[in-house]
Structure formats: C-alpha cells, structure tokens
C-alpha cells in the first residue's frame, strides 16, 4: 500500500559499488520525467554522486537529506529543481557519514525517511504543483547500512541495478536476504520491483552468461531492458547532466527510456492486481 494514492516510492539499492545504481537513479528519473511523471530523487549516499550528476554544486546544498533524517528540516525544505523539467532532487552531503552513530540509540532510527516522506505525502494537496510527485526514487549508498535500511523501510518496492560481471549473483543473494528481513520486521509491503542488468558488453561472453544466469535465477523479476556499457553514460555526470540530456540518441539514453516504459508498465500491472 503506497503512502499516497498518487505517489510511489522506489529504492535503488545494491551493497556493491560501481554497479550503475546512481546512474540508473538519475537517468530513470529523467526518463520518467520525460514521459510526464513528476519525480523526486532523494540522495541518501554521503558522497552525493546523484546530486553532482544532476548539476547541484556542493556549495549549493544548504539543506540536505542529513537535516531531513535528523528531523531538523522537513523533506520539502531540502528539495531543489534540476536542469530536467519535472525532476527535483533532495541533495546529500558528507554529513550523512556520521548519522548512523548520531541516531543509533533512537527507537525510530529505521523510520526517519519514512516519516519525512509521509509528511510530504500528507501535505500533497496544499503544495505547489512542482512538489506533487508521482514517483520518488531513493539512491542508496553501496552498503546495507542504516541509510539503506531507512530507504527500504520507507519504500513500496526495490529496483536492483546489477552489473553484468562474475560476482553479480553472489551480491544479489545477500541483498535479497536483507530485503526479506526488512519485509518481515519493518515494512510488510516491501517487494522487489525488478532487477536491471547494467554495463552489458555484447563482446564479452561472460556478460551474456551472467544475463542468462540472472534470468534463470530471478525469472520475470528481471527487466527485459538491458543497459549497455556506453561511453556517453560515463561522460554525462562530469557535465552535471543525465545522459538523456547529454546525448539523447546514444544507446544508453535509448535503453533508459525503454526501462522507464517497462517500469510504468509494471506499475500498471501492480495497480490492476
């Protein structure tokens, strides 16, 4: 059950670094915005790569997700517009590195983000149209720490970016175990939305084998869309832009547009179920 009839919260999580998680958050958010959805990306990674990749300079992150999780500011106070129409961002700062110690003794430590999103959803009708989001995407750090637990406790479902490499399935099983544990203890509605295979190189025989193995293991949970290894995807963040703005016609951009369509299609199926 979603926090609000008009709002869906999807978390992008994988405890492994370098799997394309932030890149997927940025470009899936951009693609969803391009097809008419109003999207908020919440940056929960202390290194703030989603914030940087959307052109929000570190000097301009006055109110960040740190203040939101600490309860010092409401989520809406942290939200900034990005270069992408209909796409907004709640930026992060390095302050998040210490938050686990600061809130470790608090009984509600796993629900800080959920409370912040609930408050935003409850105020939806009184907010300006630009803050009436239909999707919230949460970009998590590459670890299963308290920040990731907060995201999993607050969301409707999890989207897992998975690099087409040898150890992919090993990391996936650990993440699935964590999701199952959170479902049992913190968020009974939690589900896996889908697994997106990233950094696929058709010249690499191992990559094709990984795709086959993951599809064999997870079945229909794996999106049909596969994100290719593409130099334009790698270049875009240094320009503070999603790849869809940097080079719309490249293979990476086209793949993220297809992924957005697939996400929307799954959402329709979930609502109809």
Summarize it:
This protein is α/β, with parallel strands linked by helices and 273 residues long. It has helices spanning 21-34, 49-53, 65-70, 75-78, 99-103, 112-122, 146-154, 168-185, 205-218, 231-235, 243-246, 251-272, and strands at residues 8-12, 39-43, 80-81, 87-90, 135-139, 157-163, 191-200, 222-228.
Can you give the helix content as a percent range? Answer: 40-55%
- The fraction of residues in strands falls at 15-25%
Question: Structural class of the helices, strands and pairings?
Answer: alpha/beta
Shape: globular
Rg, rounded, reads 17 Å
Find the count of extended strands (DSSP E, 2+ residues): 8
Provide the low-confidence segments as ranges: none
Q: Work out the count of structural domains.
A: 1
| CATH architecture tag | 3-Layer(aba) Sandwich
What is the fourth-level CATH superfamily? Answer: P-loop containing nucleotide triphosphate hydrolases
